[in-house]
Design brief:
292 residues, 9-stranded mixed β-sheet
Length: 292
């Protein structure tokens, strides 16, 4: 089995260097074709790509249009039956591709991998430690909160048992057959900045009856970077407004409350599953009933 690895990038030269080195060290790297889509970077991204001429790698430049457009652009250059999405700042574990492909052989689905965070302000000074974590695992890599939460949606075999499978969609670590991606028309390019383009994509897959599975051993490591305190809240609100405007359903209406920490994932599930009586109740009334 061969796979196309899709990596959108905007600047991030140093993280991209480590990510591509991770694929160079990958078990079975002769089975992968990497597509790097440069989304209008100001930095010299081609210089980084050129270092890895020993890999089967395609570099594509586009004017800045956002991550959704970059991923859709990559599919025009895909050659394999399977595609794996990996962000430019996520270093793949040594058997990352192997684990994804093994799971896709078992089921026609969207496969969600496991996310870990590495927190170092100076990457160059901690390079050896970072590679030790990636190659061998370690306590210095932590699973982010949302990833821990959504893991509870899957049983011990990785099969999703929830009414909210799409909430586990991670565009930085997921795989599927190319025809599955094409089935729903790819990512919505109206998402221009960081936000919910991955949830919206997963939501359409869910509505198309695509099965969601989790491969906990397909791990990649995010090189965490700082953001302004208001960045995530503002991005969540902006993305939510577009998402809910497109799908004004109960399950999307309640998404904002979960993402802003007003309700837990378990509470969110109960609301969507109709376990709380009063289908016509307002969101605020449902919140009050849960807290009571």
């Amino acid at each position: 089995m061969n796979a196309d690895i899709i990596i959108p990038v905007y600047n991030q030269r140093e993280p991209l260097l480590l990510t591509l080195e991770g694929f160079h060290k990958q078990i079975g790297n002769n089975k992968i074709h990497i597509i790097v889509v440069d989304d209008g970077s100001k930095e010299r991204v081609p210089d980084i790509v050129d270092i890895f001429s020993n890999l089967d790698i395609t570099y594509v430049y586009q004017e800045n249009g956002g991550r959704s457009k970059a991923r859709n652009t990559a599919l025009k250059y895909a050659v394999a039956d399977y595609i794996i999405f990996n962000d430019a700042d996520r270093i793949p574990g040594k058997d990352f591709v192997e684990k994804h492909l093994r799971r896709l052989q078992e089921t026609d689905s969207i496969c969600i991998g496991s996310l870990k965070e590495i927190y170092f302000t100076n990457i160059e000074e901690h390079l050896q430690v970072i590679w030790d974590i990636v190659q061998n695992g370690g306590r210095l890599a932590r699973e982010p909160g949302h990833s821990k939460n959504v893991d509870c949606l899957f049983d011990e075999f990785g099969k999703c048992m929830s009414v909210l499978p799409w909430i586990a969609t991670y565009s930085g670590n997921m795989s599927m057959r190319r025809e599955t991606f094409e089935k729903v028309g790819g990512f919505d390019e109206n998402f221009k900045t960081w936000g919910f383009e991955h949830f919206e994509f997963g939501y359409r897959l869910h509505k198309s009856n695509v099965e969601f599975v989790r491969e906990r051993e397909a791990v990649n490591y995010h090189l965490a970077h700082g953001r302004d305190k208001s960045f995530y809240r503002e991005s969540i609100v902006t993305s939510y407004e577009y998402f809910y405007g497109k799908y004004p359903t109960k399950e999307i209406e309640l998404l904002k409350g979960y993402m802003l920490g007003e309700i837990s994932l378990q509470e969110y599930e109960k609301m969507v599953a109709g376990e709380i009586k009063g289908e016509n109740a307002t969101t605020k009334e449902l919140f009050i009933r849960l807290k009571d």
